[in-house]
Design goal:
Elements: H1 6-14, E1 23-24, E2 27-28, H2 34-37, H3 50-60, H4 73-82, E3 86-87, E4 95-98, E5 105-112, E6 116-124, E7 134-141, E8 147-151, E9 159-161, E10 172-174, H5 184-193, E11 237-240, E12 246-250, E13 256-258, E14 268-270, E15 285-287, E16 302-307, E17 310-315, E18 320-322, E19 340-341, E20 353-354, E21 360-367, E22 371-382, E23 385-387, E24 393-398, E25 403-406, E26 418-430, E27 433-440, E28 443-445, E29 448-449, E30 473-475, E31 493-494, E32 502-503
Parallel strand pairs: 9-10, 14-15
Antiparallel strand pairs: 1-2, 3-8, 4-5, 4-8, 5-6, 6-7, 11-12, 12-13, 16-17, 17-18, 19-32, 20-29, 21-27, 21-30, 22-26, 22-29, 22-32, 23-28, 24-25, 24-27, 30-31
Amino acid sequence: MVIPQMPLVVAVAKSQVGVHEGYAEGGWNNLTRYAAEVPGLSIYDGQSWCDTFVSWVAMRAGVAGLFPRTADCSASVTWWQNNNRWSWYPAVGSQVMLGDNGADHTGLVYAYDSVFIYTIEGNGNVNGADEGDGVYLRKRRRSDTAVYGYGLPSYAEGIITSDSSLRGLPGYIYATSHTGPGPSTLRQGAWMVDHLVTGTFAVNGPINGGRLAIQQNDVNTVALEVIAAGASAPSIAKFRDVDGTTGFEITATGRAVSRLTHYFTGPLQLGSTSADIGGGGGSFISMKDAVTVPTSNPVNGALLYSEGGVLKMRTAAGVIADLSTVPRNEWRPADHGLTAWSMDPASCSSGGTQLSLGVIYFIEVVLRNAATISNLCAVLGTAGSGLTSDQCLAGLYTSSGTRVGITNDLSTAWNSAGDKTMALTTPYAAAAGRYYVAFLANGTTSPTFASGSTLGASFTPGNAHLNPGNYRFCRSASGQTSLPASYTMTSATPDANNVWAAVA
């Protein structure tokens, strides 16, 4: 699709109407921005600038090659004639040459009828003299002796002309009169005036019609500013892929929303617009302290923040972890191929403990991240004997006492010592949080389970500073023959036997 060039030329020219040259010591001095901004014409600043203005407009509209670049009107006449783009009749977007042999003054035609031409002239004035003080709109008779002729640019869309001899020829559109381009292109021209367009420029055109380059004028101005119509307005900017899918947008409230993977080759600064990277280099994250630390739990996720210069994390289960104290040189469950455990098994005592028959033992584990639990684990120091079938079981409970997993009968598995991996009948997709592994044994003699130190039957060190319903190690009343579907954890008794258990 051809992007019309003539409307942009007219729009840029019209955007300058009202601009004046410099004024000093009681008079106008021909000093303008135009000569300085057109490559090769800066030496003519301070001289008559009507043709320099036309060259500037062509450059700003991105069609510099369609016009002569000169400050000399005579040179412009010669250029148009040598390029076979000369006519004695007006055209929209043409360069009108005025005065003796067209050498005295010039401007751009933005409309014409059978009697008049309507022009935009640099270095003009209200009377239409050849020497003026600014950019003006003029209305001249086509028959005026000052009107010498016209240079017709070869616009991509063709040029609208009143020259009947060009009727029907490629690149020419004949019209006895034309009112010029509409107001929408004037807005385009205003945008283009202060930003040099080096390639194509498409506004309200096809998405693939061109590109827009913005050069910031100075260090004190914003190069691009977009203001929303209101907080409920649609996003003020959207970036789409070739299929039209929005990957990045800026909402009407100024929030950036990305649905894409981000790539950072340098540091990422959070919480400040001033880099605080500690002299580092490469890719890492710098985080300022939270103004207000999180006080509620996230849903299906975790919150990472800094408090007092310490990196912390709040989980969906409300666990607040001080990441500066994470043991880097100590064994963790993953190092044993496990998901979570009640404690490091290396801290277990040499003797272990036998479970009281008919009592359910609840051992709490903390799941730091969501995981699917398929197995429960324990270590038996000695085997049980005379174990009752279907009354030796292990199960998984939530912190509130709901059973979410159970094994098959373990009377045979517990009839020998060793490391025991006991499969749940159905794997459980567990969210991060606290869970209880439950053991129940019935028979003649319970197996001996690996456990921590008890410090005597009257003291439960594993439950230090914990309240009913939140004990790490606790037990039910006696007489149990099965694992119930739910258990009231506040009724559990704190237990001095710190049994080791794990999930995997």
